[in-house]
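Follow-up to my earlier ticket, as requested here are the two runs.
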Amino acid sequence: MQPYIVYMGSPLNNNGDSAEISELTHLQMLSSIIPSEESERISVKHSYHHAYRGFCALLTKQEATLLSGYEEVVSVFPDPILELHTTRSWDFLGSYYSTNNYNYHASSNYDVIIGVIDTGIWPESPSFDDQHIGEVPSRWKGVCMEGFDFHKSNCNRKLIGARFYDIEDQDSNITKLPKNTTKPNVTPRDRVGHGTHTASIAAGAFVPNATYYGLASGIARGGSPSSRIATYKACSEGYCQGSAILKAIDDAIKDGVDIISISIGRSFVFQTDFKDDPIAIGAFHAAERGIGVVCSGGNEGPDPYTVTNSAPWIFTVAASTIDRKFQSNVALGNSVTLKGTGISFYTSGHAKTYPLAFGENVHFHPSLTSQARYCMPGSLDAKKVAGKIIVCMNDGWSISRLIKKLVVQDANAKGLILIDEQEKSSPFDSGNFPFAEFGKIAGAKILQYINSSKNLHATIFPANEIRRFKPAPVVADFSSRGPATLTENILKPDITAPGVGILSAMIPNTEKGSSLFGITSGTSMACPHVSGSMAFIKSIHPTWSFSMIKSAIMTTATISNNLRKPLTNTSNLDASPHEIGAGELNPITALNPGLIFETTMIDYYNFLCYYGYKEKKLRLIVSKKNNFNCPRNSTSTTKKELISHMNYPSISIEKHDQNYGVSRVKRVAMNVGSPNATYTSSIIGPPGLIVRVSPRKIEFVKEIKKISFEVSFDGKKASKGYNFGFIIWSDGFHKVKMVFAVNVE
């Protein structure tokens, strides 16, 4: 027996169903399948009735199967566990809040509300100060829920709403607390730091002199400091429950948010169908109501087919570096000094020289030599480790850097040096424990020193910040890659944003002099950069839909680094669209994109038809106000190929038969620039792939706002595999870039 989510599609009433009637209906359904002698089990954990119908309840597998056969039920699936996937970053993006661009902030036309679904929030952070923000918008319908350590007074004009949900804690010691003991989850307060960090990246207020123990000093601010924040605590220590996320999205839609930011996802290994994915379900119904959902793409790179949250109605974000590096230098006993990466600082004293030892040479037992090489738990001899700096390899085993650090620290080592086969893009924060990390070349010099001397010594110096580092941005090694496993006919991820070494608000720890800010990495950090940018664009263009803003961001994305060369990955190879999507986020340029490719709900409905969902089930999913029928051609054997025809801001063709002929797709361009404009197309593509655009020139006059065109791909002479390129529309001022990916077979 386990909790299951029962998804029943759109509400019967377009404004949402009554909570009482919905719960009664759900209880009646449960009573029809649960034996009368077990009537105490007839209860609903979460009821969904605002933007969609359904509930979460404790069921047996047989009961879940019975419910899935009900005509009014779309899907029944086990409640999944999902994972949690700033000063310099906004400067690097060409912040619109710099001195030259502050006029954008002053000219905002709309008060944007960002809903952040995460681990909660630390309301006392200066990032959530409301001193320079007006009254709460009257359209806000949310609440500020109180918890044992959170009061209504913790909400203000910046943090306008806070909710928390009943999260089943995975720690049995917590779930079995005495009755009078308060669970740590029964509060909107953040005990992890993840939610506080992401919320402040998206919409944190201006905070001067922000720093993390002297590192990354500057003015901290979010992407849209004038926007409001509503927090929805659906996650606990390191994990999130799908049923709680689904409830949070339902509440956020009812409360009146404009954008939902979700830095959460399942591992690509456990990806499921769209109708069995809580985030995809919630995001779909949010899109029906004009609300944008931005999600992290996952931290399971650099392998392909690892990107998650890949539904076309989700804005999927990859992670990249900024032009800042945290450098930790190591001086070896042979007078060689090496430049590594890492974040460590000394709260007292100075860097000292200590004996140096390789992990495999201080093993607990000869049989553990290979494990000790990687500093695995239980492999080191504490007596041999104590008082030394330990060198560990960091490849070949799925042991995190944090675990390795704790292993050597618990053995009373004086520092840790890690050697990677490939350099990591994300700096590891070891606090006040000396740490440095090196790639293969520098690592070879360390190993050479170890093998050439018996009297080994080293010094690890505290980290220092290197600004205007080049090249940047670079795709983060951990950032999940496309193609998307569920459908390759939609290019994912969509966009790349800063996600490495990001300084933002953090919950204070118990140590004296604790920092109010922290430095973290992940697509979790990249996601709110996009959410904040969308909020900023929405504040300037309040009539633009979510998909219009998404298109503006994608078609104006940057595809070159600060060396004016193509974006690269950590292997120093040119980054492909399966790594960066359309390119790096460029919020200022996105304000004036020229042309937009708006993806409508009809496109999404057609997508579900082409994907293979039965029309009978789709009528349950689609909003009742839309009388929708699947296109006739959706029943053809090649229906999934029709997904490529969606009016998406990028083009992806999963299978182009080299011997078949030409693949064609259509797009509709909307002019949001000068009323009289002529755009001419050009192609940047790989040799051998013939790309044609018809018509090559499109002309807009006052009466004409939208023009369609066709793109054809001929791969007879192209290399097999994915071929990437850009279609660029230009009127002499705007450059509208549409990325394409064509898999030639």
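Run two:
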Amino acid sequence: MNRRADEKPADATASAEAPVPDFDQFAQNMGRLVEEYGKATAAYLKPIERGEAKGGQADEASDMVKTLGRVAESWVADPRKIMEAQASITGDFLNLWSAMLKRAGGEEAKAVAEPDRRDARFADPDWSGHPMFDFIKQAYLIGSRWAESMVDKAEDLDPHTREKARFYVKQIASALSPSNFIATNPELLRETLRQNGENLVRGMKMLAEDIEAGHGELKIRQSDTGAFRIGVNIASTPGKVIFRNDIMELIQYAPSTETVLKRPLLIVPPWINKFYILDLNAEKSFIRWCVAQGLTVFCISWVNPDERHATKDFESYMREGVFAALDAIEQATGEKKVSAIGYCVGGTLLGVTLAYMAAVGDTRIESATFFTTQVDFSKAGELSVFVDEDQIRSVEEQMGKCGYLDGARMAGAFNMLRPNDLIWSYAVNNYLKGKAPTPFDLLYWNSDSTRMPAANHSFYLRNCYLENRLSKGEMTIGGKTLDLGKVTIPVYNLATREDHIAPAQSVFIGSQCFGGPVDYVVAGSGHIAGVVNPPAKVKYQYWTGGPATGVYEDWIAGASEHAGSWWPHWASWLEKQAPERVQAREPGAGKLPALCDAPGTYVLTKA
């Protein structure tokens, strides 16, 4: 059938005709691209030539090959299964080819494979409107989903190996997405032609800079780092550092109310990241909000450790961290009793500390709040894929060379849990589109990684993730065997519903380890956004349902949903325990003089 000259094909939903480049300008830009590529190569080779290259990648690649080899062995053992698997993917590709032929003939054809509606990689109209790119997209989805099914259906795999195989397949599939390559991404192809390759020159320049910043390894920028200054427009709540030792600075925040609750509040943040996740800016700052509610807030700022801290272990962080902070708070305020908050691994340390205090009769912490904290690691979430005897031994060997785990290793592990969002979207935007990332305080914090002392990290991996000794009552600290059942103070245990680091179910199980009253609360969103959820935003909800008894699925099904932030609910819980108020306390006015302004000096050290 003939088509009129002004009539568009049914599939012609492309956003615009492909631009015609200026070939002379394009050729010049390709020359500049080669020049910038040379700089990127030099940045990569520099630490190798100096003998400063970081190790560990070979061990990780070996583990991936070994893990996926176990999956292959499972299938090869049964030829019938191999034939079924081949028939499955062959059938899907035949269906795809048939659908493409129908489209070419002007017929309607239902897609064989559709991306998830939340998958931003294929948002450009040409991924569906242009037959070639639609074919590439669907072929990729068929292949990646088939690979995932090969892992899920493989027999005789132990759960840990299966989870690792799923993780590695996800990494490979994310890396091979057609959205990551110019020739197979319609948006990148249009932009490259429109800009005569200028985008690639800018991108290669940023790539060289990021390899240089990573000392030979790629450190993908996720935010405009020049837009933020710690202590100025991030981590800017007023206060003073009133105590400092080898592993922490203690910040006391300036009051903003005439009276405050008599019982001070101590925050124990994670040392895997820096404390100012709780003080991003004035609108998002949990610390600033707490001060406004009439709390005297103290927060630990952990040192960014180096080789001098190699032997600092969990007991060191308890004694020189939490206990030193309690002593300093007493000197600063005259108060022996405090409330405490622990976030993530800081919460695990707080749980360990409370069990030790119960064992020795120390009652200085009268209530505890945990943010997305695991004390039971039987359902430990996606990070558990990095933890088995072989991987821990490899990490320990790396840490033994310098006394610490490089911050980039842990930051990379967290990013790999969401590779499409936290790795490849930025790689495409920065290095192929040539666009510098926009300022985003949360991602600035995310990239501000920290190192971890060898002894501390090894203890954490082995005693918590690998052996789950704390919840079993088998962990020993300072000569005391710890029993969380002897912790009888009130506990507010916050989980987040979409958490992939400390899953809500894991936090629920951990709640049952304590011997006193536990208010288990679930917030919407994930590990960070579910916690940093100020009331003014009214962005996410939370659920309450009393003690964490029975199983998580039953608890959440019967829980009451509340709109908005959980912060006021927690503040009410805290104030009911000790409502007495006193005159506001100024940092440095007690027995401990101010050493410097908040946020202190330790937070400024880069990994």
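The only thing I checked on run two: The longest strand covers residues 365-371. Let me know what else you need.
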